[in-house]
Amino acid sequence: MSNHFSKSRRQFFAQSGVGLLAYASMPGWLQAMENMGDMPKMAPFKASASFHPDVELDLFCRPSEVAILPGQATRVQRYFAKLVKGPANTLAEIPGSYLGPVMRFEKGQKIRINLHNQLDEATITHWHGLHVPAEMDGHPLYAIDKGQTFVYEFEMLNRASMNIYHPHPHNTTARQVYHGLAGAILVNDAEERRLELPSGEYEVPIVIQDRRFDANNQLQYVHGMHDRMMGFYGDRILVNGRADFQLDVASRAYRFRVLNGSTARIYKLAWDDNTPLTVIGTDGGLLEVPVNKPYVMLAPGERLDIWADFSGRKVGSQLVLRSRSFSGALPKMAERMMGGMGGGEHGGGRGMGMHASALPMGSDYPIFTIKVARQVGDSPKLPDSLAQIKRYTLHDTANPDKPVPIGISEGPMRMVLNGRPYAYNDILPSERIPFNTVQLMEIFHAHGGSGGHGDKAGGEHGSDAGKAQGMRHGNREESGGRRMGGMGMGMGGMNHGGGQDEGGHKMGMMRGMDHGGEGKGSDHQMGGMGGMGMGGNMGMMMSMAHPIHLHGQYFQILSRTVGMGEGDGYATVKDGFIEGGWKDTVLVMPGERVRIIKPFQDFKGLFMYHCHNLEHEDMGMMRDFLVG
Predict the structure, then answer these.
(1) Which tens digit of pLDDT belongs to each residue from 516-560?
(2) Are strands 219-220 and 203-213 parallel, antiparallel or unpaired?
(3) For the chain, is the Cβ count within 10 Å smaller at the N or the C terminus?
(4) Options 3.10.20.310, 2.60.40.420, 3.90.480.20, 3.90.1150.10; which CATH number does 394-627 get?
(5) How many CB atoms within 10 Å of residue 321?
(6) pTM
(7) Two domains, one topology: 200-324+364-374 and 394-627
(8) What are phi and psi of 337, to 5 degrees?
(9) What does the alpha-carbon distance between residue 450 and residue 445 come to, in Å, rounded to a whole number?
(10) CATH top class, domain 55-187
(11) CB count, 10 Å around CB of 429?
């Protein structure tokens, strides 16, 4: 274990009031979280003589410097690309940005991309949202060292949509993305072209990120374990790699292709004059019909296709896209430390504690400003209908009574899925997916959301995942209140009731923090993982929102169910979800169960699923599906 990790972990336990006894008592899963299994190295793929591409690119990852703020240039990592073969509009640079060029492909094209690693560390690129063979998906298995080249070859099977390319190396994805390695992919098809949506200068990519800079304009990143546990939050909003972004527009309709490129920050997007947001598409392309929303939630890795019509606005007038205030996405203590919701712009400045931030998540702040710079006459009209989508039902699934579980497990130093940190070749029975099937899946908080909903969402999925975790969920509550799971320490199994076991030891091996009194409530127990439990009054101590991303084909959201007692924070976000289209990333709030239907077609092999809070991914909140 490195000195850096040892120091940050000791600080975390000391600052949390848990103590070094707990730290010293659980080397097993801490080592698992740090090592997460040995990742073998696969030989890089080479160009195939039998593959005849319509489009070929050279894509370079290399260090660079970019002027982001006034003064000294900022050191970054960047994607550079060169078109070898294909249409001239395949690549479009974003002027003055560290972001990679926008790639534009056509459905049905055969594509070859030669990835050249010119960094001083290993990397590999994932095509977030694209339906490609497993060996072309950017699995960390295929990471290449400095000086090596990996050749991707695939056919574009996606419908018209906005997708992403970004690094996916083991344990360092978040840092590489944070330092600049990311770009947008736009796919076009005939169905979309028939609609004659705004294009050219009227189709604008909007990549929203947050960053933190030091006095010399250099990027600052994670400083300790709390930044990993909660996710890293910057104090400056960048749009398309630029601070204080302003877009000059004409008085007509535009198409904004919006991507949340932050590593952890969730946005609640709304116009400052309360004009409804008109959404025409999400991750996987166009919706069936336009949807108007007062605001839209956008988690890391998610995309929005927004119709923005400035017809009738006067030259010189301005409109601001803001992130409005909300709560419930972070543990309540973390929200208080960061500055919290509702404290005015930027949450009233710096909050108290380790998470103090000049730009707290959940506060109200501007994203970018639109200025009407010129009048024009004609403007395209918003279509009444957009695209045809085949809607899946339970009857289409191979497992309508036995959903594939994706259990979110949270605790100090521990963010995992299905009770296990990432390890190569550690496939649970529930993660073995029959080829060419459509699967019902359920994403849930394995600690019962904020800790007390020990219902069937918690573990009774008819699969072996619960057995592998040693997980059992009950639903017993005392009249005095819910028994909360969420924090605290137990070394050899777990009792989330907050009470005392028969041996007289509260919370496993140590007499930790018992805020739940004599509770005999929720008997959610996890053996073998070293548990975490903290009783009732601390409420949602560790439970937080997670954007869950599934590699491979897009999925559809079947339902959302929120547990009792989650109303305060959930009420501030619930009207901002877009459910009707194709997705590859879904935001799961504390206490929420989300059922999705996902096809596993065309390709066998390993396909990852993970939290797209990238700090969590690098902590091991990631697993593999084996399709075959």
Answers:
(1) 333 333 333 333 333 333 333 333 467 899 999 999 999 999 999
(2) antiparallel
(3) N
(4) 2.60.40.420
(5) 24
(6) 0.82
(7) yes
(8) -65, -40
(9) 8
(10) mainly beta
(11) 10
What is the token pair recorded at 338?
A: 């960061």
- Kindly report the backbone phi and psi dihedral angles of residue 128, in degrees, each rounded to the nearest multiple of 5, phi listed first: -60, 115
CB of 581 within 8 A of CB of 280? no
**In the chain, where are the structural domains located?**
3-35, 55-187, 200-324+364-374, 394-627
pLDDT in tens, 42-97: 999 999 999 999 999 999 999 999 999 999 999 999 999 999 999 999 999 999 99
pLDDT, tens digit, for every residue of 221-235?
A: 987 888 889 999 999
Longest dimension (CA), the chain: 80
Q: How far is Cα 601 from Cα 96, in angstroms, rounded to an integer?
A: 40
- Amino acid 369 reads T
CB 171 within 8 A of CB 39: no
SS3 call for 396: helix
State residue 41's pLDDT score: 84
For residues 306 and 319, what is the distance between their CA atoms, to the nearest angstrom?
15
Terminal CA-CA length for the chain: 36
Q: Reduced to 3 states, what is the DSSP secondary structure of residue 32?
A: helix
Closest CA relative to residue 534, chosen from 494, 498, 491? 498
Structure tokens at 624: 């593999």
> What per-residue string of b and e applies to 191-223 under the rule 16 or more CB within 10 Å gives b?
ebeeeebbeeebebbbbbbbbbbeeebebeebe
User: Cα(331)–Cα(538) distance, rounded to whole angstroms?
Assistant: 10
Token digits of residue 476 = 């017993």
Report, at the CATH architecture level, how domain 200-324+364-374 is classified.
Answer: Sandwich (2.60)
Residue 567 host element (H or E): helix 567-570
- Tell me the residue type at 415: M
To the nearest 10°, the Cα dihedral for 501, 590, 343, 256?
160
C-alpha span between 42 and 440 (Å, rounded) = 32
Going by the DSSP 8-state scheme, the letter that residue 573 receives in this structure is T
For 129: left if phi > 0, alpha if psi spans -120 to 50, otherwise beta; the answer is left
Please report the pLDDT score of residue 481 as a whole number. 32
Please give the structure tokens belonging to residue 127: 């095509």
